[in-house]
Amino acid sequence: METTLKLHWARAVDIELVGNSFGYSVHNKELYDEVAKLVDVSDEAKNSVIIASPDLYKQPVDGKVNWLFTMNEATTLPQFCIDNIRKADFLFTPSTWCKTLLTKYFPSEKITVVNHGVSPEFEFKKRKFPTDRPFRFLWLGAPNPRKGWEEVINVWKKSFSKSGSIELYVKTTGSDKIEKNKNIVFDSRNLTRRELVKLYQSSHCFLFPTHGEGFGLTLAEAMATGLPCISTFYSGVTDFFDSDVGFPLQYRMGKTEQQFIGYNGKVETECAFPNPDDLLRKMAFVINNYRKALELGKKASIRIKKQFTWEKSANVLVNAIKQVW
């Protein structure tokens, strides 16, 4: 273990994180576990790592060099978030796209990209076209329009709702129940990590028509299991997703509104709006060319497992601090 550098690991957010913010909790734990293998984590350390969204980082850790790990999904930040991140000494962010965004408000040389990782628990699963059960399209995410569930539902109702040979599995959070309506399954239960892995592995294609991501961890998890993926080719996912490993969606940029915790009102910004016709084309292609889809899914799994691990993320973070320390 490296003994010269010590890090303080701050808990800057005391509220329970759910929905979109839940990703910060997962990120915090996974990254912490790997960093703790490399350096001593101590309250007396000079450098403090804080993982928080721009709206929740309001007070720097007193008396320490603050390394704020933050991100956003839109093209601009409101002034109060800009003021918040400028209280930090350095920034970490999970994607090249996020660094470009943050460079508008913070010195580029003080921002380091530390990609998220994917746990080894998300194991590769060999698949084949199902003959004994419906072909399952999986959408998974917080109940937020930014995750593209409205596009998925609209395309499904228009083109697939009467098919008995395929199903749409919608996994979200909020009500802790599972229901089925024709060929759509709505699942809002709290799943264990193992149950989540099994859900990815039991599906045949992952749908991710996102409007914008800081990184896109659920897409990376799906890819790790070899699940063929259809995703908007925009924002944080472009660090690990492209046509070599999946099916990128066309999109247009447009205005949207973003909400922040503790802020009254909404902030106008821009995001990507995936093309529903292209989503339909890609879904039909996967069904009719599943062997090709599985080839891309295998390549995707290899990429994620080689390049996007929490161990690698921890090393990048620690080395960045060492260069300044």
In short:
This protein has helices at residues 22-35, 79-85, 96-102, 149-159, 193-202, 217-224, 276-288, 290-307, 310-324; strands spanning 2-10, 39-41, 47-51, 65-69, 90-93, 111-113, 135-140, 166-171, 178-181, 184-187, 205-208, 229-232, 247-249, 251-258, 267-274.
Helix-strand layout with pairing:
Blueprint: E1 2-10, H1 22-35, E2 39-41, E3 47-51, E4 65-69, H2 79-85, E5 90-93, H3 96-102, E6 111-113, E7 135-140, H4 149-159, E8 166-171, E9 178-181, E10 184-187, H5 193-202, E11 205-208, H6 217-224, E12 229-232, E13 247-249, E14 251-258, E15 267-274, H7 276-288, H8 290-307, H9 310-324
Parallel strand pairs: 1-2, 1-3, 3-4, 4-5, 5-6, 7-8, 7-11, 8-10, 11-12, 12-13
Antiparallel strand pairs: 9-10, 14-15
Helix pairs in contact: 1-9, 4-7, 6-8, 7-8
Observed structural traits:
9 helices; seven-stranded mixed sheet; globular; alpha/beta; six-stranded parallel sheet; Rossmann fold
